[in-house]
Specification:
Elements (H helix, E strand, L loop, with lengths): L6 H19 L10 H15 L3 E2 L2 E2 L6 H13 L3 H25 L5 H10 L1 H7 L5 H18 L5 H15 L9 H15 L6 H26 L11 H9 L3 H12 L2 H6 L5 H26 L3 H5 L1
Antiparallel strand pairs: 1-2
């Protein structure tokens, strides 16, 4: 009988799936339905050629700088083709699939390799992974931070605190929503304080939060000053109503409809066959039941972890 494949072989097989699929989807063009990819690509060009994060000379404030900076570095090394930028995203996909597998294992999910493979096969994963978009870089970096935060529970050294804080800063400046990783930090800090009955026991988590938050706040201040000086128009994220609307208008049905359309697109596919609203409602209801039931069973067995608070 043949011996089962060792872990390194399984990792290679896992990598082969997205690498092959995403390579087949690569091309040197921009997708017509996107605009973020154009912003990232040409702001990276501006960084290389003019040393400024701008589009047509106007400073960029609505998009964070880390992903364009990574694209700028790749552009300096390998040229200015959109294909080079897409290969950068593909690299994040290959790293990300291994990180997803690792996080799934540490969060006690069964079949972590299968979870990682399915994640890569989702329609939204392919769309984002085959275009110049920041979703895969952000996903990879945010999950790496989750792993770093988990290790912080045992590696409470100055070097690990500094590294985790820097990783948090990089993640939150890849996509501004990375600041919500603070929910995981707060949850872990509260757990430490309850366990040790001392506020000082959460000092490493507090330092990580401060190190990560400082660059994010400085960047937002920079954007505010540029807009106030009239050098750039106000962006969507600079409007108070943008956040108020999202945090005061919670629609549970809309939430699961968004989850379904983003991850599965089954409702959209069924609409090509039938326009009956009952079909779409049934699909969304099944997704909601599966999600709530799965979460309840998982939380009952393993408790609610810091990563769960972030999600």
């Amino acid at each position: 009988m043949n011996a089962p494949p060792d872990p390194s072989q399984r990792r290679l097989l896992l990598l082969a799936l997205p690498a092959t699929l995403f390579l087949l989807a690569l091309n040197p063009w921009f997708s017509p339905e996107q605009h973020d990819d154009v912003t990232y690509f040409f702001s990276a060009e501006s960084l290389v050629e003019h040393g400024s994060f701008a589009l047509d000379g106007t400073p960029v404030t609505d998009w964070p700088p880390v992903f364009p900076a990574i694209l700028a570095a790749a552009r300096s090394l390998a040229g200015g083709s959109p294909l080079v930028a897409k290969l950068v995203v593909l690299l994040f996909v290959c790293v990300g699939v291994l990180v997803i597998r690792r996080v799934a294992a540490t969060q006690h999910f069964p079949c972590p390799s299968l979870i990682a493979a399915i994640t890569c096969l989702l329609p939204i994963s392919l769309i984002c992974g085959a275009n110049i978009l920041s979703e895969w870089p952000f996903l990879t970096l945010s999950l790496l931070f989750i792993l770093s935060l988990q290790r912080l529970q045992h590696s409470r050294t100055a070097l690990w605190i500094l590294g985790s804080g820097i990783l948090l800063a990089i993640t939150s400046l890849t996509r501004f929503s990375g600041v919500l990783l603070g929910a995981a930090i707060i949850a872990q800090a509260v757990t430490r304080i309850r366990a040790d009955k001392r506020l000082q026991s959460a000092l490493p988590e507090i330092l990580v939060a401060c190190i990560g938050a400082a660059p994010w706040l400085l960047w937002k201040l920079r954007c505010h000053l540029i807009i106030a000086g009239g050098d750039a128009p106000p962006g969507a994220y600079d409007q108070p109503g943008y956040y108020i609307e999202r945090f005061t208008n919670f629609d549970i049905a809309g939430l699961f409809a968004t989850i379904e359309s983003t991850l599965l697109s089954a409702t959209r596919a069924s609409s090509q066959v039938t326009d009956h609203q009952l079909v779409g409602a049934t699909i969304v209801s099944l997704v909601a039941i599966a999600t709530i039931t799965g979460a309840a069973l998982h939380f009952k067995r393993f408790g609610i972890q810091p990563a769960d608070w972030y999600v």
